Amino acid sequence: MAVDVLIEVKKAGIWYPQVQGGTLKERFINLRRFTRKKWVLRDVSLSVRRKERIVIIGRNGSGKTTLLRLMGGILAPDEGEVKIRGRVTSVIELGLGFHPYLTGRENIFLYGAILGFTKKEIENVYDEIVDFSELHDYINAPLYTYSSGMKLRLAFSIAFSLTPDVFLGDEIYAVADLPFQEKSRKKLLELHERGTAYVGVTHEIHLLFKEEWDRAIWIDDGRIRMEGPAPEVAEAYKKEVLR
Amino acid sequence: MLKRIYRYRDVLRFLVVKDIKSTYRNSILGYFWLILSPLCMMLVFYAVFSIVVKIQVKHYPLFLLSALLPWQFLTNSLSRSTSSLIEYAPVLKASSFPREYIPFSVVLVYFIQLLLSLPLLFLFSIFYHVRVFPWILPVPLILQFILVTGLSFFFSSLNVFYRDAGVILNFLLLLWFYATPVFYPLSYVPPSFLRLYCLNPMVYVVSAYRTAFLGSPVPPPFSLLYATGMSIFLFMVGYLFFKHKEQGMVKWL
C-alpha cells in the first residue's frame, strides 16, 4: 500500500440478504433457504489517496451507498479486501446518531464520538460547530424541540468541523436550504485544504462539470462501469441514462 | 482490535451518560426511582410470599431485597441489551465504531444502578441489626458482571438475525427466576438436587449477597467454582458469537 493511499478496495464484493416470501410452513421447512444472497457489489477495486476528491454517480439501487459503507468500514466485504488507513468519517443518513432527549450540546459530543473523535478533540472545535450551525440560542435545549432543518444543520456542522483523513458524504446537500448549502461547500473546500480527501455520492450531475473533482466513478448494477475525469464520466452517464 | 476499542472509548462514555441522563429526564421523582423501584418490587413479593404463600424466613423484606437487586440487574440488562442493536440500527448503519459498545453500555448502565442501590441494603441491614460481611461483595459483583455481559453479547447479536431471540429470552428469564433462590431460601432445595441446582451461577450470586447483608452462612466453595466456571464460559461463548456475527450485522438491521 503506497504511503498516501488512505483507502484501498481490492476486488471487493458484498451481498445483502434477500428475504423470500412464502407461507409459514414453507419458511419452517427451509429455515436457512428463505433468505437468498443478492450481490449488490461485485469486483470493485479503487483507492483513495490523500487530498483526493472523488465523486460517485449511478442510478438508485446501483450500490453507491453500499460502496461508501464499505470504504467507511461500516460493512466488511464478503469477498475481496478493503484496507483503511487513517480516520474516516462517513456522513451517510446524516444526523441519525442523534438522541431526542439530549441537548444539542450533548448530542455534539455523542455524534462526534460516534464519528471517531475524542472528547478533547470535540471540545477544541465546539465553538466552531455552534457558530457554523447558528444554533447558539438552542444549544442547551433538548433535540426534540428542534425542527428537522435545525437538526440537519447541527449534524452538518459537527461533521464539517472535525478534520478526518477521509470524508465520505452521501448526497449531503440534497436536504439543506440554499444559503446553508453554499456555506457547506465552502467549508468542504476548507477541509480539503487542510488535507482531507473527499468521496461524495451525488445525483446532481451538472456539478461534475462545474466543480473540481479528481475523478468520477460510475457504478452500474454493483460494478464499476467507468472511471475517469468527471466531465467525461458525466457525459457518458448522461448519454446512457437519457437515451 | 484493542486499539480500535480504545480509540472510540468516548463513545462508551457518552452512551452510558446519555442513557442515565435520558432515562429520568421528564420524570418527577428522577433518580429516586433507583431506590424506589426495587422497594416497590420487594413490597409486591413480600405481599404475595409472606401473606399469601406464607414462606417462613427471618427478615424477609431484607432477604427478598438482597436477591431482587442482583436479579433486576440481570433481567433489565438482558432484556434491554437484546433489543439494543436494533434500537441503534440507524447509528450502526452510518458509522463504524466498535459494535460491542452498544450492548456493553446497557450492561454498564444497569451495573451502575446496581451499585448505587446497594446502600439501600446496608440501611436494611442496620435496621434489622444483622451482622454484615461486605468484603465478600466484590466476588458476586464481578462474577455477575462477567455473566451478564457475555449473555448480552449473545442475545443482542442473535436477535439481529432472528427476532425470536427476544421472545425466547423472556421465557428463559422466567424459568431462571424460579431456578434461583430469590423468594425462597436455598434450604428449600432438596439436597440431592443441590449440585445440579448450583450450576446456575445466580445461586452463588444471590447466596453471596445474603452472606454480605444478612450474615447467612458463606455459600459452599463448589458453588463458587461452578459460578466462576459458568460465568467465564458463558462470557466466552457470548463474545465469540458476537464477534463472529458482527461483520454482517448491518445487513440485517
Could you provide a short overview of the structure?
Chain A is α/β, with parallel strands linked by helices and 243 residues long. Chain A has 8 helices and 9 strands.
- Morphology of chain A: globular
Ends distance of chain B? 23 Å
CATH architecture of one domain in chain A: 3-Layer(aba) Sandwich
Total number of strands of chain B: 0
Order of helices and strands of chain B: HHHHHHHHHHH
Please tell me the overall pLDDT of chain A. Answer: 87
* Uncertain stretches of 5 or more adjacent residues of chain A: none
Number of strands of chain A: 9
- Termini separation of chain A: 40 Å
Enumerate the spans of chain B where pLDDT stays under 50 for 5 or more consecutive residues.
Answer: none
SS content category of chain B = mainly alpha
Say which CATH homologous superfamily of one domain in chain A is assigned.
P-loop containing nucleotide triphosphate hydrolases
